[in-house]
Amino acid sequence: MPSFEILAIIVLVIMACGDLIAGVVNDAVNFLNSAIGAKVSTRKTIMMVAAVGILIGATFSDGIIEVARKGIFHPEFFTITEVIMVFTAVAITDLILLDLFSTFGLPTSTTVSVVFELLGGALFLAYLKTSDLDIAWTAINSESAMKIITGILLSIAVAFSVGLIVQFITRLIFSFNYKKRMEKFGFLWSGIALTCLLFFILLKGGSNASFLTADSKKWIAENTQIILGWSFAAFSVISFILIKARVNILKLIILIGTGSLAMAFAGNDLANFIGVAVGGVYAYLGADLTGNLATPTWVLLLAGIIMTVAMFVSKKAETVTKTQINLASHGNNAINQWKTNKFFEKVSKGIIYVISSGKYVLPKRIRTWLHEKWELEHNDETEKADFDLLRGSVNLMVAAALISFATSQKLPLSTTYVTFMVAMGTALADGAWGKDCAPSRVVGVLAVVSGWFMTSIMAMLMTGITVSVIFYLQSAGLAVMVVTAALIVYKLSRVHKKRSA
Question: Does the CA dihedral 396-398-404-407 come out positive or negative?
Fold first, then answer.
């Protein structure tokens, strides 16, 4: 009979494929929603742009897998077999957790789930080994976990606020009837947007690019401001020429942003899905797990292909996408999928009353001017789309800028949390949360945000239980957990099918 380690490695490889599918299904919302919501092109074209971004990001990633995962646990505390147990438990839990959230259309963070799965698995196993919680606690890095939680809380608030403010200022300048103003000085706004996207590509995508040498990365880091300054000038000139040539510059910005976010996602978040499997294989081969371990290029390319195919064929990706679009939609075709109650109705009415009352503090002339700016233009384009091209481009620009800044400052955050909260902030600034839909959308946002915190708790407990079963029952326990995971995923697919019918 094969040894436990060999069986565990086989399970890890299979689970890595499952994690790739479940991960891209949930994370696709980050880079698809702005383009799909603004109806910038057909869904197929948007998906193809994202697919190219994913394949480029996966191919040019250096594939560095940080096994300790931001210093969450210390591999040297465990034997090789025990490390493989932790990684296997993480892979099984991650598949179930991501599929659970996707089934109900809730976007969550793949980074946060993996971090807390590793935390829970390592802590539980260390306690099972020592029967002493104080000693077990030394196997993990609680300070790192607290830093991540703090980063999450800050990113949620900051992303929402910045999205709201930037969209308010943008709408104030361009209004809903933005086409004439865009022809006059849209080239400057386009220059800013494209520069933000370049900043994002250089810092988020370029940090893991295999074709850039260490000296090149250092030069980019030291000359970022100069690069961005010249880029703004160049992009503004190019945008001016394109606008004069009657090219829809906003569509171009959104498609470039979609490809950029998809590329960065594949280049960075790929480690969340195959990292534990690669770590398990390296552990079995006796590698030093305290350092950085590179993944073969063919593995990264294969992972990119699996994610691309999953993005095209999965119905759950569409479900997760619809959640954010419905919560941010300005269109009449939006579906209020969240049940509300009197409490939330009163809260939303109170907020609307305060905002409405605040308007009367302003002189009548200013109120009339603001009303004209926020007067929605009704035409075929706005009726079909959930929000206009201007808001779609702001969503991508602000999300890219915030993620890039946090990356440059080495601040922990989740791309999912940032992109979602930016979209909610821009929706609020645009007046998308009217009296009729405000209560249900407040409930929807709270449901999604509370799900983010549940992710960390569920990840820890589920991985802890899984690693305990494997620790006590070895190969039999591994078989039990694999069968359990398969049954849960099958049941969730049935649930999703019924909900979608």
Answer: negative
